[in-house]
Amino acid sequence: MKRTLIFSCILLLSTTVMAQDDLLGQLLKEEKTDSALLPERMIITQRMLWGEKGLLRTTGIAPLGLEQRKREMQTRRLFLKTHQALGFVTLGGMVAQGIVGARLYNGNYKLNEAHEALAAGLNVSYSLTAAMSLFTPPPLIQRDRKISSLKLHKWLSIVHMSGMLATNILAGQIEDKPSLKPIHRAAAFTTFASFAAAVVVIKF
Predict the structure, then answer these.
(1) CA–CA separation, 162 and 164 (whole Å)
(2) CA pair distance 154, 15, nearest whole angstrom
(3) For residue range 66-119, what is the model confidence (pLDDT) as tens digits?
(4) pTM, 2 dp
(5) Is 195 exposed, middle or buried (0-12, 13-18, 19+ CB in 10 A)?
(6) Domains of the chain: which residue ranges?
């Protein structure tokens, strides 16, 4: 059983490496061509920072202009590469947390401190991974409105972000309400499954 679990984790991680390479490639292709300096549609975090009236524009830190946008594309590339690397770290942390959590769930309470330490580290890596995507400068071109692997990746991110919040909230309530353990476990599995799927789906 343990060998099967380890083999499955290795297979999943190797698949995500290829999938993340495809994702990064698709995202970076957005940097090519278009006369507009900013796309019409941006997520709210990008608009708050990088929009025409965003914080970085109005404060003069990053005044909107062609040369500035070229520099921002370099920043975008760095953010996306960091997002990719942190995604691997986060997925590995989820696998480790799942193994420790399963043993803890089965009565091995000696692993409680390890479980809490892994949870803290996982929260940090997950938050940083998300930040690299949410606050990256916007692309130069407008994305296609059709359904794509990239859009599926983003929709799945809504699922795993919700699952991550639910997992943390339930973790803080388990001590007073042990009956929440199955729900906490289900939320954790949902988070892992949707996070892994968000990585793998970009391959198809």
Answers:
(1) 5
(2) 19
(3) 999 999 999 999 999 999 889 989 999 999 999 998 898 888 888 889 999 999
(4) 0.78
(5) buried
(6) 2-38+75-203
